[in-house]
Amino acid sequence: MSSNLIRGTFILTIGTFISKFLGLFYVIPFYKIIGGEEAAALYSYGYVPYTIFISIATAGVPLAVSKYIAKYNAIEEYAVGRKLFKSGLLLMTLTGFSAFLIMYIFSPFFAELSIPDSEQVYTVEQVTTVIRAVSFALIIVPFMSLMRGFFQGHQSMGPSAVSTVVEQIARIAFLLTGAYIVIHLMGGSVVTAISVATFAAFIGAIFGLLVLFWYFFKRKKQLDELVKKDKGQTDVSLFGMYSEIVLYAIPFIFVGIAIPLYQLIDQVTFSRAMSEIGLADQAVVAAFGVLNFSTQKLVIIPVSLATAFAMTLVPMVTSSFVQGDQSIVKRQLDQTFEVLLFLTIPAAIGIALLAEPLYTVFYAHSELGTDVLRVYAPVAILFALFSVTAAIMQGINEQRFTILSLLTGILVKLSLNIPLIKMFETEGAVYATALGFVSSITINLFVIRYFAGYSLRSIGKKISLIVLFNVVMSIVVFGLYSLLSLVLSPASLWPSFLIIIICAATGAIVYFALSSKSGLLDTLFGSRLDGIKRKLRLKKA
Length: 541
Known about the structure:
The protein is mostly helical.
């Protein structure tokens, strides 16, 4: 089981990382094409409502369905999962189309929430156009999500990983090509270019769905063989099936919209709070672009690992929990937290230390962008911990507390956002986000400890080592960065790129050398590392 967890996580991690990195690097040419932070803010105005709608429309389908199928597969009732799959395809088609209609019709309302007064850079009509362009993706994505959940429930992570990458490639190709043609060849407006860019989500979804169809028909014979082995002792009605799915899905919805909800709070309150401290409207739009688009794109990269763990962890923990094997559940949770912290902490610290050259390479040199990114980077660790702790609660059937923890965090964010923005300007919104997620994670960990008898104290020694190695790595990287800054300017593109390469490589070498010397690396990835070493020896031979 532990090997399956690592293997499944490895596959999804590769797919998710490729997708996230593509989603990160496309912003370099896209930023140049659309022309800066104000246009980026317009893109964010459209995409944040879409993200919330897509989370609701899919109803947490991949994780909920994977959990449901894994549960019945564990007791060899394979026909139950197939019954869910067949009926779910129709339901998701209806759900997606309904969500599309609602978002399209009410897009003027969402636009007014984003820009409440007439003194903004963009009008309500322009923001409405962008929101409507992205809403078309809602027609396809729920259907695609059900298919991903079906494969994940069978502990087959490859189809989800490949379709995610193909979806991202198609989306980015259409986005960049379309935006470039509109602005530089047709002489069109930024609003039209951004509308084309958001419509790219629909194009990407089509390609992602085609990949899943290919995998399904390729593996249909194997899947049918499983159904033939069905015990046939459990007959679940469609009503009972969907009642159970809804119970699973509601917490997943809240987890899926956690970050978008925080962004929506910023979208609704940021302009009001900034205007009350006397900042100009154009500066407000640019600052919002930095907060909700530019820095968020960079910070979300370490979180991709948590996403991969969450998708893999739920069916694995569910199977072990249903079978009553608490020792395996504990071992899975130990492994998850250890690997998660081992990889996300240095990634977040690295982004914070290299904030200035990173922002320069991906966008342009900006003091505001650098300051916000430096503060925002550590929040990635909180995003990751929230995703994984919430996934664990699904696995141990305590998903009801996920809603409580998220609502508590949202309440903290709502209460503190405007006061902190007034005190610290753009960085205040980041502080409010961090405090909200800390509240949610605290509740999640308490629930896990109470109902699963699990505590992070069991891996306290390894966490201490991870923290210590990160401190050493940070000192080395900061010293090297200070020296390089004397001869290379972090305000220029290519010098910044060189600084990042040298510092990142040095930091990685120091971190992994310390981890290897202490035995931590072998403890966390022993079986995987042994397999890689064997393959390398065979190739040499």
